[in-house]
What does this fold into?
Amino acid sequence: ETPAKATGTDVRGAKVTFDAAKQDDGTYRMSDLTRGARVDTYDAGGRDYGEFLGQMPDGMIPVPNKTAEYPASAGESGAVNAHVNSARVYDFYKSRLGRDGIDGKGGTLTSVVNVTANGRPFANAFWDGEKMVYGGGGDYYSFAAALDVTGHEMTHGVIERSANLIYMNQSGAINEAIADYFGNAMDVEAKGTPMSDPEAGLLAEDLCRTGTPKECALRDLNDGRNAMDDYIGATVGQDSGGVHLNSTIYSGALWDIREQLDPATADKLVYKALTEYMTPLDRFMDGRNAMVAAADAMGLPLEDIQKVTAAFDGHMIHR
Ligand code: ASN
Ligand code: ZN
It folds into this structure.
């Protein structure tokens, strides 16, 4: 197979050109061979997500097509969006943070779109330990259709291959916070949204067919959950100890830092803290210390380090 350009439409019907792989028999597959890591995108065709957990069913190949012009179905499934967004996430990690893909070693970025759950639409996405899995339905487009969500899911993979923050309680909330941070960081960079825009901190705000971004968003990194009094503790028997509920306490501090420092410096700082200082069972206080240690090691000026500590003071106080 050889690298080739292909065309299609995205979930919103816009025409898109993307990188594909031309096969020796002249047909095409949704595989990007042009980057440091291969990018493969599969269409589950509505099969249950359970068939893909930690495995790929026999006979699956990256979305095939006879010609370089993919039909509308490749857009409606979310495949075109997943493929293009995965490549953009790769580019962000490579150019800004010098990381070669999820594992840092050019391992393939694999996505599966168009899954269902128990015969019903699955309006969600997750990292299964090896790949990204996306559904959609109802009022939602495919979850692959938002760069912040693709960036979020792929960042779960980066976290697993670095600090490996355990996905429960405070370490799980930091895991979620960092996934949201980088997902949103790439989204605002791609769109040119200023950090001062109230929509900059929204996650998944583009996924709804109807409804305003604010109504649609799953989370807001400026949601004002800015004290440990807001922490929902170990009594939460669901959501792995409230990882998606408590994350904005930590991500709120990270987002304040990105608002106050040069954004590229903030991105490098969070990445350095994650990959060099955090460990699997870190609690918020450890996560804070990791950020300060990384800022110190980067040689950031004292005024920037004070902004880092002030941001955490603003989110981890007891009122
Ligand atoms: N979309 C969610 C996430 O990536 C799915 C999950 O709960 N793992 O956080
Ligand atoms: Zn997540």
Q: What stands out?
A: Residues 169-316 form a domain with the Neutral Protease; domain 2 fold (CATH 1.10.390.10). Residues 124-126, 153, 156, 176 surround asparagine (ligand 1) (CB under 6 Å). The chain has two domains: 2-145, 169-316.
